[in-house]
Design brief:
By secondary structure, this protein is an alpha/beta fold. The chain folds into three domains: 1-70 and 88-120, no CATH class; 73-86 and 126-156 and 172-374 and 441-476 and 812-818, Rossmann fold; 480-804, Glycogen Phosphorylase B (Rossmann fold, 3-Layer(aba) Sandwich), CATH 3.40.50.2000. The chain is 50% helix and 15% strand. It contains 33 helices and 25 strands. The strands form six sheets. Strands 1, 4, 7, 8, 11, 12, 13, 14, 18 and 19 form a ten-stranded mixed beta sheet that branches. Helix 11 crosses helix 14 (388-409) and helix 22 packs across helix 29 (728-736). The longest helix has 30 residues, at 41-70. The protein is globular, with a radius of gyration of 28 Å. Bound molecules: N-(methoxycarbonyl)-beta-D-glucopyranosylamine. The site of N-(methoxycarbonyl)-beta-D-glucopyranosylamine (CR1) has 18 residues, from helix 6. The site of N-(methoxycarbonyl)-beta-D-glucopyranosylamine has 18 residues, from helix 6. The modification N6-(pyridoxal phosphate)lysine is found at residue 672. It catalyses: [(1->4)-alpha-D-glucosyl](n) + phosphate = [(1->4)-alpha-D-glucosyl](n-1) + alpha-D-glucose 1-phosphate. One of its GO terms (cellular component) is cytoplasm.
Length: 827
Amino acid sequence: MKKTSTAKAANAANTATEQLKESIIKHLHSTLGTDVNKASHQAWWRATCAAVNEQVFDGLRNTQRTHYEQDTRALHYFSLEYLMGRMFSNNLHNLGIYQNAKQALAELGLDIADLEQQEEDMALGNGGLGRLAACFIESLATLNYPAVGYGIHYENGLFQQSFQDGRQIERPDSWREYGNPWEICRPESVQEIAVYGYVETVFDLQGQMKKVWHPGRIIKGVPWDIPIVGYDGSAVNVLRLWESRASDFFNWDVFNSGGYIDAARENVEAENISKVLYPNDETDAGKELRLIQQYFFCSCSLKDIIRRYKRRHGDDWSHFGKQVVIQLNDTHPAVAIPELMRILVDRAEMAWDDAWAICQQVFAYTNHTLLPEALEKWPLRLFEKVLPRHIEIIYEINRRFLLEQVEMRWPGDDAKKRKLSIIEEGHEQMVRMGHLSVVGSFKVNGVAEIHSKLVKSDLFPEMVALWPDKFTNVTNGVTPRRWLKACNPRLATLLDAKVGDDWPTDLKKLHKLADFAKDPALQDNFMAIKQQNKADLAREIKKLTRIEVDPAALFDVQIKRLHEYKRQHLNLLHILALYRRILQNPDYDMVPRVFLFGAKAAPGYKLAKEIIYAINKVADKINHDKRVKNRIKVVFMPNYRVSLAEKMIPAADVSEQISTAGKEASGTGNMKLALNGAITVGTLDGANIEIAEEVGADSIAIFGLTVDEVKALYESGYNSYDYYHNNPELKAILDWLETDYFTPGKPGELAAIKRSLLQGGDPYLVLADFESYLAAQQKVDTWYRDKALWAEKAILNTASVGKFTSDRSIEDYVERVWQLKPCQIKK
Ligand code: CR1
């Protein structure tokens, strides 16, 4: 019995492989216009993508037809960022044809790994927030939920980073310079949107007052669809990204009246809107173009949703709130709230209360940060200039909110009104997008338990008093398809054998592994895989940086955006402490470690760039110092991005999650690293707390002040000099940074870090956590010496983090916020 079914499966795989091969050759000829004899890897890759797309597009058509026929309620994810990375291997895995493709290509004399490297990352995001959106849309497709991702088709994604004498250099990222095989242009669904101009008050024949917006400029939005393949390949959803163009209609007049140059200039201005992603992670750019970007994509997307709705329901709006739910990924798309109000009140001529009721059925808002510099506020003057009608609508939303909610609850309390008003008073009036998002949404969530608690207690306590049921938590997650199956094939194969091959859609299954955590055979296999992954990464490190590292050393990894609150400089202080101990004691006994960093700094963030420079300079010194005898190597990997993360994460022994408690909303790298068997050195912050609960106190190295202790310390008046004066080692390494030891002939080049930690007041409590951080690292050193003990902890990490699949996050959203039903797609 078993034999025949295995034989059948083998036959089917053979046919699939043959068909793929044929299709690849066909596309090499007819799509790429080249020939097997002269095709480059790039051409082979494109031909293979075209072959894969035959299946992707079948799935896409099936899915769209089914959703239309069944008139499903759908989620619309509004996000300024999608950090997709590469799509090739993921699409193959999710279609279940990775092995066939690998085989087909091998038979054509090609290594699939070489082709994978041909793809540019689709880096339309900064960091965690954008990557979360990418994981979520993949999970939504996998779980068969009707969903569309909406965003911007940036011509340039996040800048490419290189180092020149240790300093970060940014270059533009033209990810689609030669076209991208995964995107489909949809000219039939173009939208036109308006900005600028003025509002006129008119009275109709019945004497009703009406507002008429006379726009100053019209911009065309051209949609590009990226198919999102669910795992097992039956549902294929879309990510719809808008590209801005000059409106033909609008510029025609200017052109005719002889204003050819003016028309050309306007074209450039219109096209600028989707030209580039703002490279700030967790800081508000506050620029006019950014507001226009936000409005542009929200307006295009809402019109797209309404067009689809009307195709089914005509002018009957009564089902809109049942069919449509919109998730706002942070406040960036919050302008969608007044835009929907404008469409309903001004265009559909609906009564305000009815329109508002619809809005409040439709919008939900996710908060991703408590950092004050990230909380978006727009100068009222600017808002008024760009969106003159929307500012009036916001005034009206605010007037009613203050009157019907705040005044009712706290009569006569002007201080409360000032605090809660969507318009901030002051030297310059500002529009508070966070307030607008909470007022306009039916649900508000944070992204980890602790963060959601802080959103309620520290950010919006009065809003909680008004609407206690509005606030909820959905802890973040990551897709195990990309972050284990595709990026760590060796471990994936071991897991298939040990727990069965359904773990990619049922990650709790990994828990079976815990029973074998002490089993020497499993430990050997598990650690042998880690070793091979480390050897692969060592080769990559050599290729990218020319630095040689020993795969037998402990690989200590910190990968995330560069930010003071994430405290890469705390990591650096630990490295300096170890180095100094070695210099003072040539026999200093420590497990050899490779410290690996990957991080981009926002181009305007000076101190972040100084930290990169300092790490590079210290690395240079240590890596060439014979006295170190390879006990320490420091490597800053250039151009950290999704595809590099996929190489680093499977090779990590230690995961650095060392933010100041209360500052990292969740983190998602922490989940990916633990899933791949790295042991976390971390603070009780964000999702680290939940990871610790899952893996158990013995399999994680927790250190540092807690959220409450951090608050207490700030309140009692933190003085970083106390720590500097009381810890001679800490004092010595900080003073070291002021000398020219790491920058010969140029003393003081690394002094900015010391300055920020002392004169600057050390806003993120680096010095306060230093001692306890070093103690946690010492513990890790001890653990690592005991191979069996380490293997057990590593296995327990992989076994215990099933909770952090993005499938679970999506099911939480469905239950707590979206109220969706899955829709099975027949193949
Ligand atoms: C948070 O800093 C979180 C991601 C995704 C980031 C990070 O801790 O994992 O969001 N916040 O929820 C952010 O980018 C603008 O705010």
